[in-house]
């Protein structure tokens, strides 16, 4: 079964994972249920080569040693991009749940030759149930848990001859984790900030909810659809705040699409699709600001006394808003041709037009919904078009089978950008199958990431303040996949990443292209074994990054975990009852202190986290199939930290303690 998984992300077409020209980890619906994955963050932290850091606003992390806000990774839903528009972040929070997931494919390594910008270190492709023609039914999911967590969702799909209608809907709310004690920790959290400035009995409160939904209608190759979410949450631990009860962040992102799949001949197929995105976001911070605090002291505030509620509201409220605006937009058109002249040759090519029409943000220190002026007056610094960029792209990929054992892939993409001009990326792959149960991969890939509006300093003024070039990446890779028996499968891959023009902060909001070449070497491996009623899976990741000069010392693997181990053990006690345990191990890590004013390297100890899932699956009740689950995360309530890799906030992030969840799934 594991050797016959079909994937589409490696080549934009269905192919066996064994011969795909990429390293791809696949998580199926069955894996999701057995392991108790409730959201995408939980799923990703169990994938080799991936690090996911919970901050309770959205997941930080990345792939293969490049950790940030996940802006180096391209996030797709059914092959369509779902990054946020303003910063090209994956912005993975509670809106990306697992109720509608058929399969997740995590591609490791650069993929710009197929997908263009921002597939710098990899691609996450969520393949949904409602988008799959073989899903013909209805599902209802309900969940409840600690921190007043609750969720309800529906997924449906109906085939009526040539007509199909499908969709999904979910409502989720939770108080998330309670960090009321941690935010007062002057050593592990707000180190470097004036302790006496903060309220003595500072409260912590999170109210988070998300509302993702999707729908699609298709008829004889024509289709229209929508992917949309609304998300409201606190700002978690991202900043050192003076008021954790009043701050919040609200997001809206919608994708509308329409297209056609047409078989021209038995050898030639065409897909043409138009996409329209719209995004708005707004929120409020009460982040501590040293300059404002010093001014208050000069004006008479007693530094031995905490700030009053009035002083906090009048001086530290920081509103960012697109609430009264028409929102940022993106217009995209794709044409793709799939030509298969013979059983041993396939060619994929296409053209893409892509335009971003971004809006900046209105700022205020006294109004939660500041006015947003979009008039075209020359005096208006926020006038439209505020920040517009567009590109035209051509891509071509050839795959050839040689001697029934060699699978050759060659591909390239040409992107012409109105700002960055011409960018060419190339990929090649050679997969050798000397034996039926063995495959060996030799891969090379290139990628680039465009600077964001944040990095260009153009978020609040209609002008690019900083000249930056795209980040470039080259990766060399070799891997082996071996099926020893039907019950024992292993794979191992070694890679070398070489990044140039990397964009790094010099201060909080000032960025530059680094003149340093970043080299990262890594190894990833997985082992699957089944004996009787027991199945086990073990994943291992090793990363070695060049030394960084920081705080007067040269440090190898700064901000990178050297070793990561993920493991799962599933016991089928009966035909319907399973017990699953998962362990995540993180080695000791040296990282920059999260407070930008403290130039110091901190050491975060190694730790292991264990989760348990108990499942009664596929219980027949009349025409329905019912699954019930009890999930326990961080079973031993271990206390552990992860680094603040974005810098500009707390020293480090405390991760949630023990949590319990109950799930109920009805399939009709």
UniProtKB/TrEMBL annotation:
A GO term, aspect molecular function: siderophore uptake transmembrane transporter activity
The keyword Transmembrane is annotated on this UniProt entry: yes
Protein species of origin: Flavobacterium gawalongense
Source organism superkingdom: Bacteria
Cellular component, GO, one term: cell outer membrane
Lineage: Bacteria, Pseudomonadati, Bacteroidota, Flavobacteriia, Flavobacteriales
Annotated ranges, domain TonB-dependent receptor-like beta-barrel: 247-616
Entry keyword set: Cell outer membrane, Membrane, Receptor, Signal, TonB box, Transmembrane, Transmembrane beta strand, Transport
GO BP term, pick one: siderophore transmembrane transport
UniProt similarity note: Belongs to the TonB-dependent receptor family.
Compartmental location: Cell outer membrane
Topological relation to the membrane, as annotated: Multi-pass membrane protein
Sequence ranges assigned to domain TonB-dependent receptor plug in this UniProt record: 20-123
Designated name of the protein: TonB-dependent receptor
A Pfam cross-reference name: TonB_dep_Rec_b-barrel
